[in-house]
């Protein structure tokens, strides 16, 4: 029987989710996300042979790096935006910096810094469509542990200066993510 584990960074993002789901708040940033995702998976499925029975659903808000991008999205690819691929490759170090999730959704760039406009945002927009702070770490943990992953992000802001008001904007994301979850029927599977 398939089990569902829902992961979110912040409690404000899960405000409209049912109380009876298996939900773990993993915290903000890649280190917390990697550790708490791994702990949650190993607690629920210590036997690697049973991990095919678990699906991790990561939900959360994200900043849009493309004009006109809004609403709920399932990323098709995730990149670690904190890795300087060119420099590492020039040093002869192989880089595994992309995780394919499938589908045709936008590219998600994950990093530990909050993106609120400026040159960092402009540079990221050339490589990705959305930006968050946990997706890459969750994807790496799930891949390493052999667990199925589905990722759903709602655009809360444009990753510009207005993103600093995230706590005020996340209510819209919470409503949209809760509606998506109920409509998806994923919890009933």
TrEMBL record:
One of its GO terms (molecular function) is catalytic activity. This is Nucleosidase. Residues 107-163 form the Nucleoside phosphorylase domain. One of its GO terms (biological process) is nucleoside metabolic process. InterPro entries: Nucleoside_phosphorylase_d, Nucleoside_phosphorylase_sf. It comes from Kocuria turfanensis. Pfam families: PNP_UDP_1.
